[in-house]
């Protein structure tokens, strides 16, 4: 049985706006069920453990999908989300794939979490699949290869774009531009139209541009894992 490690943020303040943030429900729910329905074992973790904060906007009716509704009625899944282990208690060696959903929370904590840095590097060095969606690639920014270069250098990647950040009027709120930072690391950043599904796969690294890309990214993970069997 393949084992998937999800890492969700513990950060819940949307900058200095007085609003809350966290992970985006759709970006977790769709991939979660893609893995569960393929009979993979899923572990959910977060930097502080316990219940990771969910972005309240992702709970609004207009942002609900069949998968988010299924999740909220799934007692087993909700129990997992209530009691995530602390990130430093898990080991990359126990898992086949790392999956980082987005939401704005990762921009503040996963972007600089040292435990996540080590986990990402362990996955990378063991040639395991790493996938991140929307703002999830913020969790890959610190990771370097054995030469000290970014694991994203010369890699085709995507993530939440400057244009999308401006559209949701948070370009002045986020601590940095994800698109710019990915480019600064030497990646080959690609993008599609705002909020349209778009997934990039370069070797063991799979990235999705926005919430609409999360399920497709998970499907790509499943495809690669099957080809590795």
Describe the structure.
It is a single chain. The chain has 229 residues and is an alpha/beta fold. The protein has a single domain, classed as Class I glutamine amidotransferase (GATase) domain (Rossmann fold). It has eight helices and eight strands. It has helices at residues 25-37, 66-72, 75-82, 105-108, 114-125, 162-167, 178-184, 214-228; strands at residues 3-7, 41-45, 97-100, 129-133, 156-157, 188-189, 199-202, 205-208. The protein has a six-stranded mixed beta sheet with strand order 2-1-3-4-8-7, sandwiched between helices. A two-stranded parallel sheet has the order 5-6. A hairpin with a 2-residue loop joins strand 7 and strand 8. Helix 1 packs across helix 2 and helix 1 (25-37) runs parallel beside helix 8. The protein is globular. 46% of the residues are buried. GO terms for molecular function: glyoxalase III activity.
Please specify the SSE layout and strand pairing.
Blueprint: E1 3-7, H1 25-37, E2 41-45, H2 66-72, H3 75-82, E3 97-100, H4 105-108, H5 114-125, E4 129-133, E5 156-157, H6 162-167, H7 178-184, E6 188-189, E7 199-202, E8 205-208, H8 214-228
Parallel strand pairs: 1-2, 1-3, 3-4, 4-8, 5-6
Antiparallel strand pairs: 7-8
Pfam families: DJ-1_PfpI
Protein name: ThiJ/PfpI domain protein
Family: Belongs to the peptidase C56 family. HSP31-like subfamily.
